[in-house]
Amino acid sequence: MRKLILLATSILLCEGVGLLATPFTLSAIPIWYMHLHKPFFSPPNWLFGPVWTTLFLLMGISLFLVMRKSVVKKRVKIAVYYFLAQLLVNFLWSFLFFGLKSPILGLVDIIVLFILIILTMKQFLPVSRIAFWLLVPYVLWVGFATVLNISIVVLN
Fold it and tell me: Is residue 100 part of a domain?
């Protein structure tokens, strides 16, 4: 029962961050984002919701797999700190890019996010290989989003 509660809490934490960022995104899309020049490889707007929901789910499961190893262990505690740092920076991107309507601040943030995800994965690997691999789609998507963010900065 304790593991089930920990799993649910981990997933809800990650999905909750996505939900908290949603108002910044949704309010800016029709008013601001749709008028930006975007590269030819920019995905349709409807794709972002399902992708992020899936990524937050995978992140939550990954966090659970690490936390179940016991947070009192120094290695696990450090891994969780890295995870929480990248989760905060993830949230900040929506605020900076959409909320403040600043692709440049979004770009700075997403570069930091990409680095923090890699550092988180490095911390997760010795604790749980599965947790590490569950973050691979996330780092790949954020890598793609970084290129998209750079393109938006350049085109606008």
Answer: yes
Reported as a single tens digit per residue, the pLDDT across 38-72 is 999 999 999 999 999 999 999 999 999 999 987 66
Kindly report, residue by residue over 7-38, the tens digit of the pLDDT.
999 999 999 999 999 999 999 999 999 999 99
Asked if residue 65 belongs to a domain, the reply is yes
Structurally, the chain folds into a number of domains equal to 1
| 40 found inside a domain | no
Nearest-CA neighbor of 145 among 58, 39, 61, 60?
39
41 in any annotated domain: no
Amino acid at 18: G
Under a CB-based contact definition with an 8 Å cutoff, are residues 151 and 39 in contact?
yes
Q: pTM for this structure? A: 0.95
Query: Residue 70: which region, alpha, beta or left (left: phi > 0; alpha: psi -120 to 50)?
Result: left
For residue 71, what are the contacts with CB-CB under 8 A and spacing of at least 6? 77, 80
